[in-house]
Amino acid sequence: QKSTKGSVVLGYVFRHLNLVEIDYFGLRYCDRSHQTYWLDPAKTLAEHKELINTGPPYTLYFGIKFYAEDPCKLKEEITRYQFFLQVKQDVLQGRLPCPVNTAAQLGAYIIQSELGDYDPYKHTAGYVSEYRFVPDQKEELEDAIERIHKTLMGQVPAEAEVNYLGVAKSLEMYGVDLHPVYGENKSEYFLGLTPIGVVVYKNKKQVGKYFWPRITKVHFKETQFELRVLGKDCNETSFFFEARNKVTCKHLWKCCVEHHTFFRVPENESNSLSRKVSKFGSIGYKHRYSGKTSLRMTRDPSVQLPRPDQSIERSRSKTYPKRTQQKGSENMSQITTNGENEGTTKIIAPSPVKRY
């Protein structure tokens, strides 16, 4: 129903996925111009004008809204599994770039989680090529993944997934929510909202970083976005950026307010910085983040986690025709796909989701 609150829709999804550590996740949707938004739990579907204009039907995408700084410390295996699936997709679709050696390590953990221990009778030449790990995947990477997979004997899926997240969390772009903006002289920048603060990129290089505890104000007017930051000398400095239009500027502001509220140092921590920054919470923002903060998620005694006897149903990854080099009749079944004539295997990677 259009009168249904976002929180009700989210509740259905969380129950379906059997998630309790729910505040890290959300439902995202796109408007007609491909700008993405998060479903607001406090609003009805009808109040999400950009969503209503796209349907019916209305399409929402489940995903991580706030990336835990250390996903290995999430309390439940099922939560870590959802993080594993999301980060795996981030790498595959190019949102989380990684060097080849890291990609090989990550790929080996994926294979170990999916197929278990290496077995020379089951895992014949080219078995890794049936899976997709990165954009524009090369055979050299698949060979490296196979070599590493052979060394991971004994790791159960949950263990392989935690090891995967342990490597992925150290990548520079892990958990970075990128927003395009303009600086002085219309030069292009990206503001990245991360678990530790706001990072500024220019020409793919990091040129600034502002930690959440030191950000005292987030403000926007028309297309101008302001970040006010407390310096080491306890003086505040404002940094201004231009967004493409009013809609994207408001969206950036909203995301930034929510990230700051979720990840900031709690107001009752007894240090001068926290006391100075605590006034941020009293500013009369029209937009509020209503969920638990990151700290409350880790300290909340109301829910005893992990729940006992949780069983997790893991889904299989999409597979593709095996990359083959051998010729001969014994390989014809591998290199003939969809009833086509004999020929080389077509390796078709899934088309990436547009990067917003």
Automatic annotation (TrEMBL):
Descriptive protein name: Erythrocyte membrane protein band 4.1-like 4A
GO molecular function terms attached to this record: cytoskeletal protein binding
Gene: Epb41l4a
Lineage: Eukaryota, Metazoa, Chordata, Craniata, Vertebrata
Assigned GO CC terms: cytoskeleton; membrane
Source superkingdom: Eukaryota
Entry keyword set: Cytoplasm, Cytoskeleton
Keyword presence, Nucleus: no
Organism of this sequence: Rhadina sibilatrix
Keyword hit for Chloroplast: no
Region (Disordered): 296-356
Compositional bias (Polar residues): 326-344
Alphabetical list of SUPFAM superfamilies matching this protein: PH domain-like, Second domain of FERM, Ubiquitin-like
Localization annotation: Cytoplasm, Cytoskeleton
FERM domain span: 1-267
Primary location class: cytoplasm
InterPro entries: Band_41_domain (IPR019749), Ez/rad/moesin-like (IPR000798), FA (IPR014847), FERM/acyl-CoA-bd_prot_sf (IPR014352), FERM_2 (IPR035963), FERM_central (IPR019748), FERM_CS (IPR019747), FERM_domain (IPR000299)
GO biological process, alphabetically ordered: actomyosin structure organization
